[in-house]
Amino acid sequence: MTTYNLALIGFGGVNRALAELIRDEPGRFASLGFELRVVAITDLAFGSLVQGEGIDLASVLAMPRGSTFEGLPGGSPDPRNEDVIKNSPADIVVEATFTSPVDGEPAVSHVKWALESGKHVVTTNKGPVALHGQELRTLAAENGVRFEYEGAVMSGTPVIRLAHKMLGGLELNAVQGILNGTSNYVLGRMEAGLGLDEAISEAQALGYAEADPTADIGGSDVRLKVAILANELLGASIRPGDVETTGIQDITSDDVTQALAGGSRWKLIGEARREEDGRIVATVQPVALPADHPLAGISGATNAVSFTTDLLGAVTVSGPGAGRVETAYALISDIIAVDEFAKGAVRA
Ligand SMILES: NC(=O)C1=CN([C@@H]2O[C@H](COP(=O)(O)OP(=O)(O)OC[C@H]3O[C@@H](n4cnc5c(N)ncnc54)[C@H](O)[C@@H]3O)[C@@H](O)[C@H]2O)C=CC1
Ligand SMILES: N[C@@H](CC=O)C(=O)O
Predict the structure, then answer these.
(1) For residues 231 and 278, what is the distance between their CA atoms, to the nearest angstrom?
(2) Considering only CA atoms, which of 323, 321, 301 is closest in space to residue 13?
(3) Using CB atoms within 10 A of its CB, is residue 313 exposed (0-12), middle (13-18) or buried (19+)?
(4) Percent of the chain having pLDDT more than 70?
């Protein structure tokens, strides 16, 4: 049985859910031939903790808000990210700090430090993938490790790896979908009569929203995801700034109820499409979809993405687009990919 040592960078909703899974079901991965041990944690609030023999997850998960790792063996009140990433005995760095849609930092540096130190990276952070994906994949290959990021698009629902592995023989000409759990949840709650702010508060409490929910409502979260899908699956090399973006911030409760009464539903749609001249055009915009549109029935934090292919026509994948546990599962699926690589089942 292989043991993978993990360093959790960021100890918020997603990485805590991963720690809870490891605490509650340590034997869950035995049938896959590995077990997971957390040897380091860093967080802006808690500081950092490194214990090579394995951290007692029940204890750290029970620590109250406002406390820090200071005083624990290997503990510090400061989140010494660089030192922990470079020098802790981790095999895999699990990056789940805030997404920056502007420059991807500090996550981009976290990923680089890890890859340059010969550590695999699994991440749910969209910034590094959307803004520096190609550079980081190259850096990983140069260092003989993996950079995996399934959770960057549609949380734990398989999209990126599924498309690479299962749609490889097809020509993909467009991707279109509902790619943000928070905004879809909020629009649904507005249909039920809630105001925008109240609906956003609910999405925050449920762990769907970004630390700054204007990224969800204003469309910049979907913009990152569209850039990732366009670059990964359509062979584009676009920047998030190339994606023309309008969010749902100007959709009023009246707009939502009037649309519903007329048989349609407002949805925030992200799309990247290959034009006849080969250019990739990418947009994010609210659209009032007729009730019979395949994406109109996608409700709550569920997301869906449709791939337009040459041989199969439209292939659509639907599932959770946000949520702490759901996104922690994306990290597990990334660790499984790292394990396959480490055991030689997948070539770099
Ligand atoms: N929650 C969700 O449904 C999904 C989240 N994501 C992404 O996963 C990442 C984590 O999400 P959540 O856990 O929900 O966010 P969160 O806001 O609950 O947790 C982020 C944690 O990172 C810590 N942090 C921020 N900057 C740091 C730094 N420089 N050093 C150390 N710690 C730092 C914060 O203190 C916080 O505890 C984000 O990038 C988010 O965009 C992706 C898919 C779904
Ligand atoms: N805030 C995001 C989380 C996943 O990327 C969302 O709501 O979709």
Answers:
(1) 14
(2) 323
(3) exposed
(4) 99
For 164-227, the DSSP string reads HHHSTTS-EEEEEEE--HHHHHHHHHHHTT--HHHHHHHHHHTT-S-SSTHHHHSSHHHHHHHH
pLDDT at 348: 44
Measured in whole angstroms, the distance separating CA 92 from the mean position of its chain's CA atoms is 17
Question: 46: CA distance to ligand 1 center in Å?
Answer: 14
For 301, list phi and psi in degrees, rounded to 5: -85, 10
Q: What gap in Å lies between CA 205 and CA 191, rounded to an integer?
A: 19
Question: Is the predicted ipTM greater than 0.95, yes or no?
Answer: yes
Question: Any residues with CB less than 8 A from the CB of 123 and at least 6 apart, and which?
Answer: 94, 95, 96, 107, 111, 129, 147, 148, 149, 151, 152, 334
pTM: 0.97
Q: Residues lining ligand 2, CB < 6 A? A: 155, 180-182, 208-210, 216, 221, 321-322
Give the residue, out of 150, 186, 221, 329, with the most ligand 2 atoms within 8 A of its beta carbon, to mutate for a pocket test: 221
- Give the pLDDT of residue 346: 54
Q: What is the mean pLDDT of residues 27-49?
A: 95
How far is the C-alpha of 64 from the C-alpha of 55, rounded, in Å? 17
Radius of gyration of the chain (CA): 20
Please tell me whether residue 269 adopts helix, strand or coil conformation: strand
- Using CA atoms, how far apart are residues 205 and 200, in angstroms rounded to an integer? 9
Token duo for residue 302: 């569920």
For residue 119, indicate whether it is catalytic.
no
Please give the mean pLDDT across all residues of the chain: 96
Q: Are 312 and 169 in contact (CB under 8 A)?
A: no
Measured in Å, residue 210 CA sits from the centre of ligand 1 at 8
- Is the pLDDT reported for residue 347 higher than 60? no
- Which of 44, 178, 179, 185 for a ligand 1 pocket mutation test, highest count of atoms within 8 Å of Cβ? 44
- Write down the pLDDT at residue 242: 97
Q: What is the pLDDT of residues 76-86, one digit of tens each?
A: 999 999 999 99
Residues 6+ apart with CB under 8 A from 287: 266, 267, 268, 269
